[in-house]
Design goal:
By secondary structure, the chain is an all-alpha fold. It is a peripheral membrane protein.
Length: 89
């Protein structure tokens, strides 16, 4: 712990065997986050194109709000079904 307080000694780098599980886990997490980001972007784009019809007001009207709610709900349900489908076979 002395390296935290200015000592010139640094902890030894991880060996290839020690780093491998860490690197694999980090890559897996990065893929999950990237997939989540893509799904969110796709849902936002799809629901925006389907539901937002007017830019006259600052806020969504009642019809647009309902449309966005249904669109997000259906998209979420579809993604869950697609993800769990291989597990159910």
């Amino acid at each position: 712990m002395s390296f935290l307080f200015g000592s010139s000694k640094k902890p030894a780098p991880l060996s290839k065997e020690e780093a491998s599980p860490t690197v694999i886990k980090a890559e897996h997490i990065a893929r999950i986050l990237n997939t989540d980001k893509l799904l969110l972007n796709n849902m936002s784009d799809l629901c925006f194109r389907r539901c937002i019809v007017s830019f006259e007001k600052e806020f969504l009207n009642h019809m647009e709000q309902n449309c966005v709610d249904r669109c997000v709900s259906k998209y979420d349900q579809m993604v869950r079904e697609v993800i769990t489908a291989p597990l159910n076979q």
